[in-house]
Automatic annotation (TrEMBL):
Sorted UniProt keywords: DNA-binding, Transcription, Transcription regulation
Record-linked InterPro entries: Homeodomain-like_sf, HTH_RpiR, RpiR-like, RpiR-like_SIS, SIS_dom, SIS_dom_sf, WH-like_DNA-bd_sf
Gene3D superfamilies cross-referenced by the UniProt entry: Glucose-6-phosphate isomerase like protein, domain 1 (3.40.50.10490), Winged helix-like DNA-binding domain superfamily/Winged helix DNA-binding domain (1.10.10.10)
Domain SIS: start-end pairs: 116-253
Species this chain originates from: Paenibacillus chibensis
Key word DNA-binding present: yes
Protein name as annotated: MurR/RpiR family transcriptional regulator
Residues annotated as domain HTH rpiR-type: 1-73
Keyword Translocase in record: no
Signal peptide feature range: none
Length: 277
């Protein structure tokens, strides 16, 4: 069952509910409004008012629609396997990452992915922004894309310092944004400024319902876990690595030439700057 909210103005509470339901459709038949309210950190009355957004009278009617349309998904199969594993088994815990990868792959639109790769390949400069744990993704994107000869600039983490580099962004440039959990003031500024000045934005997010999705030039979804869980970076890293490989494939000759030049440079100065293992 697919939820669509195009051209609808949802309250912040209803956005969280819609995002949660989009990710957990298979669990809804077994939940009550109190469960959903707790999972989304909203009031029960907010949940009760939400059903009108999906053209239902109440949760009971929505559940029936879900039961009528829902099929067994790969995610359900994985969860079934997890329930049989020993919770103290570290190897079993690794499979949680596989579930996030599956969710990310299931929601990956090839057209959006191809467009994202083209944006990065054709950009004059790729600016990268990602606060908190996403700083690891910023560093990875910088390291990998620079290898291809792409000009990469990291944006400051937040506050007014963001403007120091943002003022230099040109229409031919792209900002790669890692925006998780919610739309921060910094993300709102980046997306609004892009619209005003005409440059492109590539948003990587774990949200399925958010005003940000409509503002970005291209959006890619990645699963990281629920609001109350430890947010995994397994799927975001895998998605980013896959995207970078796609960029390299599109600019194959330039990428290969850059790798060869790097090899020769390392070889020439090996004694002065040996590679550390």
């Amino acid at each position: 069952m697919e939820l669509t909210f195009e051209n609808r103005k949802l309250t912040r509470g209803h956005q969280r509910i819609a995002d949660y339901i989009s990710k957990h459709m298979e669990d809804i038949p077994f939940m009550v409004e109190e469960d959903i309210a707790s999972a989304c950190d909203v009031s029960i009355s907010t949940v009760s008012r939400f059903w009108a957004e999906v053209n239902c009278k109440n949760l009971k009617e929505f559940k029936q629609k879900v039961k009528d349309e829902m099929l067994l998904s790969p995610s359900q199969k994985l969860q079934s396997a997890f329930s049989k594993m020993n919770e103290e088994d570290a190897a079993a815990s690794l499979w949680v990452g596989a579930d996030y990868l599956q969710q990310t792959a299931d929601r990956l639109a090839q057209e959006a992915f191809d467009q994202a790769a083209r944006l990065l390949r054709e950009a004059g400069t790729v600016y990268v922004y990602g606060p908190g744990s996403a700083e690891s993704l910023v560093a990875l994107a910088d390291f990998r894309l620079s290898r291809f000869g792409i000009r990469v600039t990291r944006l400051d983490r937040g506050g007014h310092e963001l403007f120091n580099r943002l003022v230099h962004v040109q229409p031919q440039d792209v900002i790669l944004i890692f925006g998780f959990v919610s739309e921060s003031p910094e993300l709102a500024v980046l997306l609004d400024d892009a619209k005003e000045r005409g440059y492109r934005t590539l948003l990587v997010t774990d949200l399925l319902v958010s005003p940000m999705l409509e503002k970005a030039t291209v959006t890619l979804y990645t699963a990281r876990g629920q609001l109350w869980e430890f947010h995994s970076m397994v799927a975001p890293v895998a998605l980013l690595e896959t995207l970078i490989v796609a960029v390299g494939k599109q600019m194959e000759e330039q990428a290969v030439a850059g790798s060869e030049a790097l090899h020769q440079l390392r070889k020439k100065y090996h004694k002065l700057l040996p590679k550390r293992i």
